[in-house]
Design brief:
398 residues; Molybdenum Cofactor Biosythetic Enzyme, Chain A; Molybdopterin biosynthesis moea protein, domain 2; Molybdopterin biosynthesis moeA protein, domain 3; elongated
Length: 398
């Protein structure tokens, strides 16, 4: 049986390049940047005032002058005003350009203003204070954000600040989510005592939307001809097929045969893990990739995060974060020789350690338990007893 590590290696051998596309910058949140964003001018682009107050020439302080005639008032966005004498000042606001004739800003809290005169109340004044100097952050043409990173609100802000109305991003694969089985009914329907509502497909879609993917969804009934036709249609129209259920050995599991009839090559079937042991992965000669997850909700959820999202990030050349580890906070036992993905709730103890509390449910069909957890803890298959205080790798829901 394929191990988890072998499965990951085989999947990552199937990376694809879907090219790039240019989008309006405000539509790129969550996408992967395919170009560097550079400063179109110095940042800040001028000597910028950082406090409301008065602007003076510091030489006046050196000459013992502490009362100033207010020559002008300058707001952010105004053309710079000018003083001609050392005993003159400019009332100036945060964000304004620092005029060339002054070089120091004294905040209002340290000044008393009466009848056009500003008297300085403090002697603790430094030349150049309360100024953000031109180019102090970045120089023109400096890189503000490198390629191959997720576009965050901060990146959107950078793009806006340098006038990048469009950003080049990695093109996302076309993804379809396929559910199957006559036991599944639509969400708005009332199931019979022998049916359940569709949920796995919506779970997968919600996770993908968190990663800027907008997948399509279809449902296939338990009919071998319809199954084959739909699989072949999807192979021609999508880059990735995500199947939930229908890949086991049941009499009405027609998907494996449909995949075989459609010349889809199986890379592996069954992984030494729980949940998700029946996980199936393969590819088509046209480049389409198929992830066939077990039908149980927890198994689908785990495999989606462990395998598909890992593949997606690698395909998009997104530099993944360093592994996260947590401390198991109570003893746990798991007997089969399988890697176990234990549902846990994460929290920090007073010592700053990341702790993992097991949330034991009723197996991979216990989807209600997912709402109370935020990660899986990866327990190695070489062991069956896991002690409080042991440290294991965390698979987060992100």
């Amino acid at each position: 049986m394929t191990t988890v590590e072998q499965a990951e290696k085989l999947i990552l051998a199937q990376l694809k390049d879907y090219g790039t596309e240019s989008l309006p910058f405000e539509q790129t949140l969550g996408r992967v940047l395919a170009e560097a964003i550079k400063a179109d001018r110095d940042l800040p682009p001028f000597n910028r005032v950082t406090m409301d107050g008065i602007a003076i020439n510091y030489q006046a302080i050196e000459n013992g002058i502490h009362t100033f005639h207010i020559k002008a008032t300058q707001a952010a966005g105004d053309e710079p005003a000018t003083i001609n004498e050392l005993d003159e000042c400019i009332e100036i606001m945060t964000g304004a350009v620092m005029p060339a004739s002054v070089n120091t800003v004294i905040r209002y809290e340290d000044v008393e203003i009466r009848t056009g005169l500003a008297s300085v109340l403090t002697r603790d004044i430094k030349k150049g204070q309360n100024l953000h100097l031109q180019g102090a952050d970045k120089k023109q043409h400096d890189i503000l954000a490198a390629a191959d990173r997720i576009i965050t609100p901060a990146i959107i802000s950078l793009a806006a600040s340098v006038g990048k109305t469009h950003l080049l991003v990695k093109r996302m694969p076309r993804v379809v989510i396929i559910s199957s089985g006559d036991e599944l009914v639509d969400v708005h329907q009332t199931p019979s005592p022998y049916q359940i509502r569709k949920s796995n497909n919506y779970t997968i879609k919600a996770v993908l939307q968190q990663h800027a993917l907008q997948p399509d969804m279809i449902h296939i009934p338990d009919d071998p001809d319809v199954t084959r036709q739909q699989i072949q249609r999807c192979l021609q129209n999508y880059d990735v097929l995500l199947l939930s259920g229908g890949i086991s050995m049941g009499k009405f599991d027609y998907i494996p045969q449909a995949l075989q009839d459609s010349q889809v090559e199986k890379v592996f079937h069954k992984v030494a893990q729980r949940p998700g042991k029946p996980f199936w992965f393969g590819g088509h000669q046209n480049g389409a990739i198929i992830f066939a997850f077990p039908g149980n909700p927890v198994a689908t959820f785990m495999c989606l995060h462990k395998y598909f999202l890992h593949w997606l990030k690698a395909t998009l050349s997104f530099a993944e974060q360093l592994p996260v580890y947590a401390v198991l906070d109570k003893d746990f036992t798991f007997q089969p020789a399988l890697k176990y993905f234990l549902q846990v709730k994460l929290h920090s103890n007073p010592q700053g350690q990341l702790m993992a509390s097991p949330i034991e449910g009723n197996g991979s069909g216990d989807f209600a338990n997912l709402a109370d957890t935020d990660a899986f803890l990866e327990l190695p298959l070489e062991r069956s007893d896991f002690k409080a205080g042991d440290v294991f790798k965390v698979l987060r829901f992100d």
